[in-house]
Amino acid sequence: MGKRKSRMSKVLATAKKPAPKLETAFSCPFCDHGGAVECRIDLKHMIAEASCFACQARYSTTAHALTEPIDVYSEWIDQCELANAGAAGAAAAADRRKTKRRN
């Protein structure tokens, strides 16, 4: 014959696992100092800011109710990559102009 389930087994079966915690300290994209970037979100003024305490680099953007520190940091990294791609493209265009003038 089957055994009845105890009340405790029902509680353990329905208990939810806690969500994993996201990081709040990040490495700086300029000085590469680990854990030096902290993100502050001011929902009253709708501003989110990431700043490095080692090299004093800063990035700010607009915030909304769902903004998390990882979102601010990721946006900063994306903007750095766009700036680097733009600078590389401008340098390549300048090199092409120089070679056209020589020919």
UniProtKB/TrEMBL annotation:
Localization per record: Nucleus
Protein role: Transcription elongation factor implicated in the maintenance of proper chromatin structure in actively transcribed regions.
Transmembrane segment boundaries: none
Entry's family note: Belongs to the ELOF1 family.
Protein origin, superkingdom: Eukaryota
Single biological process term from Gene Ontology: transcription elongation by RNA polymerase II
Main location: nucleus
GO CC terms in record: transcription elongation factor complex
A Pfam family hit: Zn_ribbon_Elf1
This protein's record includes keyword rRNA-binding: no
Protein name listed in UniProt: Transcription elongation factor 1 homolog
GO terms of molecular function: RNA polymerase II complex binding; zinc ion binding
UniProt entry keywords in alphabetical sequence: Metal-binding, Nucleus, Transcription, Transcription regulation, Zinc, Zinc-finger
Coiled coil stretches, renumbered: none
InterPro entries, sorted: Elf1 (IPR007808), T_Elf1_sf (IPR038567)
Organism annotation: Oryza punctata (Red rice)
